[in-house]
Amino acid sequence: MPGFYKRLISTLTGLLLIADSMWLLAHDKIHLGILLPLVIGIMLILYALFFYHFQQWQQKTRFRSNLWKLMWAGFLTWVASVVIFFGFIASNINSDNIQQPTKAILVLGSGIENGKPSPILQKRLDAAAHYAQHHPKPLIIMTGGLGFQEKYTEAEVMQAYFKKTYPTIYNPIALEAQSTSTELNLRKSKMILDQHQIQLSDPIAIVTSDFHSIRARAIAQHQGYSNVINISAETPLYIRYNAWLREYFAFLSGWLLNEY
Q1: Whether 140 contacts 172, CB under 8 Å
Q2: Which residues of 100-138 are buried (b: 16+ CB within 10 A; e: fewer)?
Q3: Which domain holds residue 135?
Q4: What backbone phi and psi angles, to 5 degrees, belong to 258?
Q5: Nearest Cα to 243, choosing from 41, 181, 45, 251?
Q6: Helices (H) and strands (E) in the chain — how many of each?
Q7: What pTM does this model have?
Q8: Does 146 lie in the same domain as 28?
Q9: Domain end call among 56, 91, 126
């Protein structure tokens, strides 16, 4: 590919990634799925600006040339793995489980903003409400502890939103308000299930975001939940692929930490 087109593609891709990250950072969103595209975008812009310097550097010796090719091969292999992972998420989104009966509905937390559920968490609560409308008896467990500088636990905020937004849903609600991770949410919810005579072998619906469903199910099964019903909530488009990218690393981290 001629140098001009390499520089053009790198510039446009870099600008797009930087614009996406900066817009989300300006809205107080910050995590690896936002910061990494920013770093990659800056590197692509620098590559385009100093393209001929890089070319001269790597052409001086065979070692440099091979190293340069290896670096690009590694980067493109990683990009391909991310694309495959995104496809894996998309193919495992569960939107057809609404009719499956359950004994309990676990809603996994996803952060609160200004005392209200984050947009991602709202989608989870909306999905839980849609499911509960078809199943008015199962226990609903809101999960999430006290965040940094927050007055109310995530579970309390979730319950308040749920009751205000869906006043006609009368399922009993319990709060798991001590944990700040998926692994602990599910582990501590066991005690609540036991108090309501619900066994881990009973059908239990786990409501979470589309990108999180695979890992949440794997963690639950590792903990003994043997009859999991996945209910996937759609991730808002403006942050969807950043959240999916963050999940890519969370999935690897969970595997390394033996969470599933």
Answers
A1: yes
A2: bebbbbbbbbbbbbeeebbebbbbbbbbbbebbeebeeb
A3: 104-256
A4: 60, 40
A5: 251
A6: 9, 7
A7: 0.87
A8: no
A9: 91
Whether residue 96 lies inside any domain: the answer is no
Do 138 and 239 lie in one domain? The reply is yes
For tokens 């797009």, the residue is 16
Would you give per-residue pLDDT tens digits along the chain (260 residues)? 678 889 999 999 999 999 999 999 998 888 999 999 999 999 999 999 999 999 999 999 999 999 999 999 999 999 999 999 999 998 888 666 788 999 999 999 988 988 899 999 999 999 999 999 999 999 999 999 988 778 899 999 999 999 999 999 999 999 999 998 999 999 999 999 999 999 999 999 999 999 999 999 999 999 999 999 999 999 999 999 999 999 999 999 988 888 77
Amino acid at 144: G
Q: Does residue 217 share a domain with residue 125?
A: yes
Q: How far apart are CA 174 and CA 190, in angstroms?
A: 12
